[in-house]
Amino acid sequence: MPREIVPKIAIVFWFAASVACLDTPEFQRNLPAKVIWGVLGKDVELPCDITPPIPSDNFKMVFWFKDTDGMPLYSLDARGGPLGEASHLAMSDDLGSRSYFIKDEQPSKARLRIRNVTIHDEGVFRCRVDFDNSPTRNFQVNLTLVVQPSAPRIFNAEGNEIKRNSSAGPFLEGDELFLSCQVTGGRPRPSLTWWHNNTLIDGVVDSSETSFTIVNQLTRRHTPRSFWKSHLECRASSSAIAGDVVRVVPIVVLLKPNKVKIVTPNDLLSIHKPQNVKCETSGSYPPAKLTWLLDGKPIRNAVVTEEVTDSFTGSIISLNVVADNDGKDLVCRANNPRFPGGSLEDRRQIHVAYPPKVSVKLDSGVNSPVKEGTDVTLRCDSSARPSPYGYRWYHDGHLVALNESGGVLPIDHILTLKSIQKKSQGQYACFATNTEGGSYSSPFDLIIQYAPRCKKGYEVMRVGIVKHEPLVVQCHVDSIPEDVRFSWTYNTSKGVFPVLGAKMHNNGGVSTLHFNPSTEDIDSLSCWATNDVGKQEQPCLFYIIPAETPESPRHCILRNASHGGLEVACVAGADGGLHQSFVLEVNDVTIPSPPPGVTTLSDQGEAKLLYRALGDKPMFRLHSLHPGREYQIMVYAENAKGRSEPPVLLPSVRVEAEIPADTLHETDTTTRPGSEGYPSSRQNLTVILVALTAAAVLLIVGIVATAVTIACRKTPAAARRQTTRRKSSDDLEMSEAGFSEGFQRRSAQYRASMYGLQETEDRISRLIDGPDLILAPVSFSQQNSEY
Ligand SMILES: *[C@@H]1O[C@H](CO)[C@@H](O)[C@H](O)[C@H]1NC(C)=O
Ligand SMILES: *[C@@H]1O[C@H](CO)[C@@H](O)[C@H](O)[C@H]1NC(C)=O
Ligand SMILES: *[C@@H]1O[C@H](CO)[C@@H](O)[C@H](O)[C@H]1NC(C)=O
Ligand SMILES: *[C@@H]1O[C@H](CO)[C@@H](O)[C@H](O)[C@H]1NC(C)=O
Ligand SMILES: *[C@@H]1O[C@H](CO)[C@@H](O)[C@H](O)[C@H]1NC(C)=O
Ligand SMILES: *[C@@H]1O[C@H](CO)[C@@H](O)[C@H](O)[C@H]1NC(C)=O
Ligand SMILES: *[C@@H]1O[C@H](CO)[C@@H](O)[C@H](O)[C@H]1NC(C)=O
């Protein structure tokens, strides 16, 4: 029996004991407490399970106590009826008024809601649940307020803090990005995360569990373009209800251009006008600068129009190209000046339309130098875009026409000259045309080598022979190369023989032969020359004829010379086989006006030789004519055989204009031997009158007077001879006396003047032996004589 009583006593004791110790602090300390986090100013719910331990049992009462307060702050009494009608009783203090017990559908989820939590609400709450039959239950809840961490601080890689309102960076696209976010404090220990565009990008805290400061370092190996113009967020969160403490940091990201393109179609560019080429770039921040390069060099002096928006840059260049730019690269370079290495370029090869640049070349198949008789092909090499569509060929400035029979074939850029002749020598140029224009090549000198041939005008000559005189014959040939060898032959009735043992002097294309004809019946001499190309085909011929006097000059005209004075010009006649020269004689045929008191009868019609002029050509100039006087002019030719007959007589002339004083003066003193005749004729007249008077009076006196007269007449002649001796060599031809004496001599001079000076001297001294021989300069024969 006592065994049954013991449990009963134990239960009663336990009940009593439990009731007794339920509200003691000791009891409360031992009760496990569930931690509930509350946030200042927000509502919090403290759970209290009111489920009866036995289903049949019923919930009776709930009491809420806080901390060690003996008085409940809230109660719910269901003793009078069902739970729904239970009465709520909040104590009239602040906390009680903000509290309300929520009976849930599920009794296990019943809870006390406290509105607008204050700092004083923090503490340990006890919920005591009484049932009808089951024993009372107690639950403890530890309400703790959440403490937000400090505002996050952001630091850059250098450890410098990013201040509020300022942004982080700049970061280079593709480069590393580093930012560190730090918070201190916070209960519970907060989480620290990095966000971009509401996407978590780093949720790993880098500091240790125990450190006071919580750090999250954001590291990006390659800063993505998507970070451009955006911001990052560092969020510190202690509790979801409390919300995050957020720090937003704008970041500056520099972008390199990711697109650059020359958008204008790559058409042919003309050199004649500037053309717009457009380039566009995008993707750069700040906007890229566009630069243009041509053939690796920046383009200068070009008009460039720019268009810049946020990250787009457009550039239109007004491009002036030259022919040399053809095939070169045009580069459009986009460069972000703030981004080291942040440049991108587009390049294209440009094609420039330009007029032809042409040059004439000998075709590679042609041997140079070109020899007569070979076929020659000239090529007109051109550089042009587009290709030339037309060619023309020029020879010495004349258009070359197609002549198939003549072997001249200008076909497009090829000029073929078949079996080329010397006359095709000269300067060749070609002209090519395309859409951009046309241009001439510089002249190409086509030199044609050819065998010697007689120089024009020297093919057939007549050489006069003078008995016992050696023949001097000159042969003139043309050839390229000019280096020639000469050989001479002569024809007799017996045949053709080479000239041997004669003196031959060769100088370039001229051979001078000194030949002593041994046989009398020699017909002709032939001169042959040979060079590298070949032998002369036709010899230069010299017919040997007996020397004759020359023919008279023909077609003489008298005209006003361009610089004043008069000019006489004739055409030379045949020279009779010898060198001929020309003589001009001027006579004064003025009818003198009678001196006062003297009759004029005796002088009427008398012509006085004023002067003679000698020239290598029948051309003369007269300066020294006196105005108011009348002159007779006569021209004839002379050679070693004699003078031409009859002389050409020109119509008489009268000069009206005054001759300049210095010319007159010179003429009076040196070149007018005839003027000396005036005192002579006046004296003459006086003498006749005196003689007539004397004869009438006395014969002896007359004889004496006659003797005196003769003496007087001789004096001027003697004086004249003296004058002659004083004359210089230049005046020689103008002197009447010198002329008549020097006739033979000077003719020889002219024959010789075409030879060397030494030879001239030799020859003349052999021909003539005169005491006052004066040589004319060798060059004299080449110019017109002027008087
Ligand atoms: C919460 O309490 C504070 C002070 O205790 C008070 O200023 C505030 O108005 C209350 N808020 C609400 C919503 O009752
Ligand atoms: C309540 O909970 C907090 C946080 O866990 C703790 O620091 C505090 O000591 C607790 N208070 C009591 C009375 O248990
Ligand atoms: C931050 O910027 C805002 C507006 O841009 C300005 O009103 C504010 O004063 C700035 N704060 C600081 C600390 O510079
Ligand atoms: C932010 O994210 C949304 C959705 O993920 C996206 O549509 C939007 O383009 C993003 N914005 C930026 C600036 O990346
Ligand atoms: C063609 O060339 C030949 C030989 O040189 C010449 O005789 C002829 O006149 C030329 N024809 C024309 C049309 O020039
Ligand atoms: C020279 O003689 C040859 C033969 O005797 C003859 O054929 C030729 O015509 C002659 N030439 C001259 C220029 O007389
Ligand atoms: C020379 O010119 C003059 C006037 O200047 C003129 O009277 C004379 O007829 C001209 N003589 C000749 C030959 O032309």
Automatic annotation (TrEMBL):
- Bilayer-crossing regions: 685-712
**Where's it found, cell-wise?**
Membrane
The keyword Transmembrane belongs to this UniProt entry's keyword annotation: yes
Q: Residues annotated as region Disordered? A: 715-738
Primary localization class, coarse? membrane
Q: Name one GO cellular component term.
A: membrane
A Pfam family matched by this chain, by name? Answer: V-set
Span of domain Ig-like: 25-144, 152-239, 250-351, 356-441, 452-531
Q: Which InterPro entries match?
A: CD80_C2-set, FN3_dom, FN3_sf, Ig-like_dom, Ig-like_dom_sf, Ig-like_fold, Ig_sub, Ig_sub2
Q: This chain belongs to which protein, by name?
A: Neural cell adhesion molecule 2-like Protein
Q: Which organism is it from?
A: Tribolium castaneum
